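Notebook entry, structure prediction.
Reason for the run: the old model in the group folder had no record of what sequence produced it. Starting over properly, with the input documented here first.
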Amino acid sequence: MSRIAPIFLLFFLLGGICLADSAEFKLDNGVTVVYEYIPSTKIVSVQAWIKTGSVNEDEKLNGISHFLEHILFKGTKNFKPDEIDVVVESAGGVMNAGTSKDFTSYYITLPEETAETAFKVISDMIFAASFIPDEIEKEKPVVLQEIERKFDNPTYQMFMDAIEVLAADTPYRREVIGTAENVRSFTPEMLRKYYESHYHPQNTTLVVAGDITLERVKTLSKKYFNVKSRVKPSGGYDREWKTTFVSSAEREYKQEIAQDYVLVGYQLPASAKDAPVYEVLSEILSGGEYSLLNRDLRDKGLVTAAYSFEILNKRAGSYIIDIAANPNESGKALSALDKTLQKMSSGKVTEKELERAKNRLKSNVIFRKEKAGRTASEIGYSYTLDLGDYHRKYISLIDNITLKDIADTSKAIFSSPRIVYKTLPK
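New structure, fully documented this time:
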């Protein structure tokens, strides 16, 4: 992982103790540690972010990152199966984990006085898992049920087929959760091999945010995370892919539903580092009661709901617009949508609309930063995707976006080939 520029450290005296607002350092084994001081909360969030997700998988291993996340709760060198939850709860903490296409993360948020529990538990999970065969077999039905539940959503197949096209020829086209066939095939040996290749110190960022001193963070990090490297990290995380760009296409699905559902999808020549302009664009288009899609489509009775959002992975992106319309009225809705998109592309967004979108995004960030867990997550995301101090610059990046940026970005997206997929009533 590339190291960011040195973070400016602010020091101040509090009760005779010298505290840093933020700091970054590396352990001897290559783990990057990032610290953010949040005073007066009495809460600490400890998170480990691993540079591995479904992007590292092939067809046979698709789903192994997500399944491995489940298995790491099922026994380690120092904790028996199902003991981890009890230990964390006894320390007053809450714990969770998540797998994405680019990364896997684990976090514990708990009172400051029991912070050591979080360091000990997470370190054991990511560096000393047991891979007990019986526990692996018991967890398979849990994940298989998750896979089955996907189809409760009548538009699920349409969405996944769209992503397959928009992310063609890249690992991003595959689902994080994988396939039932793959999950049934995973063995302790397969899981351990993947774990030892990717859960490596050099692939790990440890983030600690909250009411805790830098000195204590350094002590606990070195005690629990400065483990000996098993093997060199597996290659492949940073490999480049040549995406096949789509041509315009349409497709229809039939389901037992009462509305028309429409997905309009565009490929983006962009990645996570380009998020601010796309987030402002989406906020103008569908964020809140005064957004363009609500005003131009929903409030006129042309749709019952309309949303837009960007999917920005480390090395690929898509832009999606979802519409729900009354039966047999998706055609009218699409015509109205195109007029709104043309308005954005031709620079007809107003300064007031731009400022409203910026203010909503900035207020969301400010409110999130009141929570240690959210702050740690934003830091982990930035470091794991090699975005440097993106989490610190976010508000200024939003402030610097102009009406011309919105018009140029809209034109680049909405004048490109698109797919239009519909799920319609039978």
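Summary: Residues 351-368 form the longest helix (18 residues).
The old model has been moved to the deprecated folder.
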